[in-house]
Amino acid sequence: MAELGVSGVGLGRADSGGGAGRAGADPLLPQEENGVDGRAIRVGTRRSQLARIQTDSVVTMLRELYPDLHFEIVAMSTTGDKILDTALSKIGEKSLFTKELENALERNEVDLVVHSLKDLPTSLPPDFTIGAVCKRENPLDAVVFHPKNCGKTLSLLPEKSVIGTSSLRRAAQLKKKFPHLEFRDIRGNLNTRLKKLDEKEDFSAIILAAAGLKRMGWENRIGQLLSPEDCLYAVGQGALAVEVRAKDQEILNMEGGCSVPVAVNTLLKDGQLYLTGAVYSLDGSDSLKETMQTGVSYPHQNEDGPNDDVQHVGITAKNVPGQAQEAAENLGVELASLLLSKGAKHILSVARQLNDAR
Ligand code: DPM
């Protein structure tokens, strides 16, 4: 899986005007030279401002990596955008925000689709795959307060204050932690929700992902960041994923090209985890490779499953105790530091420059 480093976010480019327009039909484009094998690369997105900002940030990175390719953004609405009067959890469709985009992928109307990773169902239909995941933003949930509650925290809000969220995950955890508060559904995109909060007296505060607020430029509205003890975030929250057709090798190759020549290998043997990491120059002549190991033996399996006191591991592997996960993660960090101390950064930046110049 390639990792794109998220950098600049821009709203520079207008979309193709709505619907699933085919970029190839644009008479102004030189048809032979505008893409992989002459293809224009069409990138599908939802229409909300947040979705557009997210998609634009990915397209900006792709344009930097592939200045000769032509990218076109195709915006469309999904069920989750259209049904605004029903609680999310009651609509009864898993792929609320992704289905229409996948349909367009299937019909070759778009070639890539940018999603929030957490909006993707746990397993994708077999015809699709994730080509890239971008560097994750802050994964935590955040509280945005009504202006009249500015400076407060959830625990300081008066008895029976109403908090807006349509996330069962958030409501369930926060009800337990803050029993003096009431929770009510609030739907619509981020702009709509913030408006509902600010311009009425219905809600004392709403809960949103810090990542979305940051991307919208509304970081200053975060009144309280919820620690994992208050509210565990959703799997994948804060990361963007690029979904592609599993059989579209040309696009998959392109996505692979976004990565840097970093390689790892892991071996689990006799309670020891061995991790080998390496970086390479483009022709492989210059390289750096190191192996480190750590003990991950778990003497007795905890009866109620793995303990989950590891807070910085975003994904919890089933049946692996927290200690072992933590050891594995620390090993990765230590290995990366070791490689960096030996000059990995230099090798990678030369490789990146040379690759950009090709
Ligand atoms: C999913 C949920 C929500 C979104 C449910 C959950 C929040 C719904 C709500 C699966 N998708 O998190 O428990 O608050 O009523 C969504 C947001 C982002 C991606 C907005 C948000 C942006 C952050 C990111 C909606 N999807 O969660 O505030 O990139 O993770």
Instruction: Indicate the low-confidence ranges by residue numbers.
Output: 1-35, 256-260, 300-318
CATH class of the largest domain: Alpha Beta
The CATH homologous superfamily name of the largest domain equals: Periplasmic binding protein-like II
Bound molecules: ligand DPM
Radius of gyration: 23 Å
Strand order of the largest sheet: 1-5-11-4-2-3
Total number of helices: 10
- Tell me, rounded to a whole number, the average pLDDT: 78
The helix fraction, in percent, is 25-40%
Based on secondary structure, the structural category is alpha/beta
Order of helices and strands: EEHEHHHEEEEHEHEHEEHEEEHH
Major beta sheet summary: 6 strands, mixed
- Residue share in β-strands: 15-25%
Specify the CATH architecture of the largest domain. 3-Layer(aba) Sandwich
Measure the end-to-end span: 22 Å
Please tell me about this protein's structure.
The chain has 358 residues and is an alpha/beta fold. The chain has helices spanning 49-65, 79-82, 88-91, 99-106, 168-177, 190-199, 210-216, 249-256, 322-341, 344-357; strands at 2-4, 41-46, 71-76, 112-116, 128-134, 141-145, 162-164, 182-184, 205-209, 222-226, 240-245, 262-269, 272-280, 287-295. Strands 1-5-11-4-2-3 form a 6-stranded mixed sheet, sandwiched between helices. Strands 8-7-9-6-10 form a 5-stranded mixed sheet, with helices on both faces. A hairpin with a 2-residue loop joins strand 12 (262-269) and strand 13. The longest helix is centred in the last third of the chain and has 20 residues, at 322-341. The two termini are 22 Å apart. 31% of the residues are buried. It binds ligand DPM. Residues 88, 116, 118-119, 165-167, 169-170, 208-209, 211-212, 234, 237-238 line the site of ligand DPM.
